[in-house]
Write a structure and sequence with these properties.
Rossmann fold; about 230 residues
C-alpha cells in the first residue's frame, strides 16, 4: 500500500482524475480514498492545511491502512535564486522551522524534542525515484531541505533568513509534521513539491496564477514515481 497526502483540493485534483476509487471514508476531518493508481494499491488523502491537520492525517493513515510508503505531494514556495516557479523541490530532509526549544542550549532551532538532529531524513529510495522521474519528464528538479511552518511565507527577509539558517530550498505548511509521524512509525517518507511561488513579496500573486497549471504537472510526476515502486 502506498499513501499519498495532499493538503488542498487544488493539490489533489489532478491525481484524483487518474485514481480508480474503490472505497471512500472520512475519519475525523480527513478524507481517504482507497483504490488503484499507476497500477498500485494506493490510498489518497486530503489532510487540510497546516501541521496539526497533516500530522492527524498521517497517523490515521498509518493506523488504518498500514502503508509501506507515504508521499506528501503539493505546492511550496521557492527559497533562493536557483529555484523558480514550476520547478520541483524533492526533499532530502524536512525541518519544522517554527519549532524552537533552542533556549535550553543543547538544541538547534527546528530540532524536535526527542530527535537527535533537526533534519528529519526522507527515504533515499523515494528521493532517487523522484529525481529520475523528473529528469525523464524533462522537469527541472532540486534536492534539499524543505521547511515547514504554520504560515504562508511572503516576506523576502524571512525567506533569506530561512535559506541562511536552515539551508532551505522551499517552504510550505505540512511535510515536516508528516515526516515526523512517519519517522516515529518507521514508514518510508518522501516529499514532492511543485514550486508555486517565490517565498517573497510576490508570493500571493504567483500562487493564484499557478492553480491552472499545477494539476497536470503533479499528476504526471506522482503517477510515474509510484509506477516505479
Amino acid at each position: 500500500m502506498i499513501g499519498i497526502i495532499c493538503a488542498m483540493e487544488e493539490e489533489i485534483s489532478g491525481i484524483k482524475e487518474s485514481f480508480i476509487s474503490i472505497a471512500e471514508e472520512k475519519i475525523s476531518s480527513n478524507k481517504f480514498i482507497k483504490g488503484e493508481y499507476a497500477g498500485k494499491e494506493c490510498v489518497l488523502a486530503l489532510s487540510g492545511v497546516g501541521k496539526v491537520y497533516a500530522a492527524m492525517c498521517a497517523q490515521t493513515m498509518i493506523l488504518r491502512y498500514e502503508p509501506e510508503y507515504i508521499i506528501n505531494v503539493g505546492m511550496a514556495g521557492g527559497i533562493g535564486e536557483k529555484i523558480n516557479v514550476n520547478d520541483i523541490a524533492i526533499a532530502t530532509n524536512v525541518i519544522q522551522y517554527d519549532y524552537d526549544i533552542s533556549v535550553f542550549g543543547d538544541k538547534k532551532k527546528g530540532q524536535i524534542s526527542g530527535f537527535a538532529q533537526r533534519e528529519i531524513p526522507c527515504s533515499s529510495k523515494l528521493i532517487n525515484i523522484m529525481e529520475k522521474t523528473s529528469k525523464e519528464l524533462n522537469i527541472r528538479s532540486h534536492l534539499g531541505n524543505v521547511l515547514t511552518g504554520d504560515s504562508f511565507l511572503c516576506e523576502q527577509m524571512q525567506a533569506r533568513y530561512l535559506e541562511r539558517e536552515f539551508n532551505g530550498l522551499a517552504c510550505e505548511m505540512e511535510c515536516g509534521s508528516i515526516g515526523q509521524v512517519c519517522f516515529i512509525n518507521k514508514v518510508e517518507f518522501g516529499t514532492l513539491k511543485v514550486i508555486s511561488d517565490k517565498a517573497d513579496g510576490s508570493a500571493a500573486d504567483d500562487f493564484e496564477k499557478f492553480y491552472v497549471e499545477y494539476p497536470q504537472i503533479i499528476n504526471k510526476l506522482v503517477e510515474k514515481t509510484i509506477s516505479k515502486l
